[in-house]
Design brief:
The chain has about 110 residues and is an alpha/beta fold. It contains four helices and four strands; from the N terminus they run E-H-E-E-H-E-H-H.
């Protein structure tokens, strides 16, 4: 079952990607690399660099890999920064996540 992992090049995402792969899952990563790192992933793991809110990109990934499930880790998590810039956190963690979920549903990924 092909699984899309958003934020899969971050610390928690990359560990999850490796765990899924050890269990035989086909994993595809979507990450904007603003905090994640390509080096955190095995070179064999397909990485799409982009935003989770990019519905056309999500549709392309879903189509190219027949994605059946998704795990979402693409979020900002720094507490102090979130207090200094709550709008950025709301945009990234709420608005973009909502758009990502809509793109998943529009492509039959539940």
């Amino acid at each position: 079952m092909p699984i899309l992992v958003s934020g899969g090049a971050g610390y928690i995402g990359s560990v999850t990607v490796e765990l899924l792969r050890t269990r035989g899952a086909e994993v595809i990563v979507l990450d904007d690399l603003c905090r994640g790192h390509r080096a955190a992933l095995d070179p064999a793991v397909p990485l799409y660099q982009g935003q989770v809110e990019d519905a056309a990109l999500v549709a392309r990934i879903a189509r190219e890999h027949s994605i059946e499930a998704a795990i979402h880790f693409a979020a900002l998590i720094e507490a102090g920064e979130s207090v200094r810039d709550p709008g950025r956190y709301f945009e990234n963690n709420t608005v973009q996540t909502t758009r990502f979920l809509r793109a998943l549903l529009d492509n039959g990924i539940t």
